[in-house]
Amino acid sequence: MLGRACQKLQSATPLTTSIRGKARGVIVQSYAADVLPYKGKPAAPRSNRVRLEAGKTYNWCSCGLSVTQPFCDGTHKINGLTDVKPVSFQVEKTGDYPLCDCKQTDTRPICDGKHKD
């Protein structure tokens, strides 16, 4: 019985995109990484305004340890933070976006002002 339920879940359309709140225009491609409860180590208490191109895939660092902030450089693997994964995303329009550097945002990867709280 449980096996059939699992098969149905596997054949269902996967949740691959997420568009929320201030993250309008951002298509999150790694849904599981987007909803992890872990909030990373703050890289800086501010947003990081970055020029992003439409249709290009970016990997936002959610652990806060990357030296290429706000983007992932794989440091989370070296330090053994295996539960933390980067949030892969694209933007719908080319432009400047405020990416979160404090890692406390509820609208990953877009800054929601949590660093001001």
Automatic annotation (TrEMBL):
Domain spans labelled Iron-binding zinc finger CDGSH type: 45-82, 86-117
Pfam families reported for this sequence: zf-CDGSH
Keyword Metal-binding: yes
Origin: domain of life: Eukaryota
Single GO MF descriptor: metal ion binding
Protein's name according to its UniProt entry: Iron-binding zinc finger CDGSH type domain-containing protein
Organism of this sequence: Caenorhabditis japonica
Obligatory cofactor(s): [2Fe-2S] cluster
Keywords: 2Fe-2S, Iron, Iron-sulfur, Metal-binding
Keyword Chloroplast found: no
One Gene Ontology term, aspect cellular component: mitochondrion
Family annotation (PANTHER family): CDGSH IRON SULFUR DOMAIN PROTEIN HOMOLOG, CDGSH IRON-SULFUR DOMAIN-CONTAINING PROTEIN 3, MITOCHONDRIAL
Gene3D superfamilies reported in the protein's UniProt record: CDGSH iron-sulfur domain, mitoNEET-type
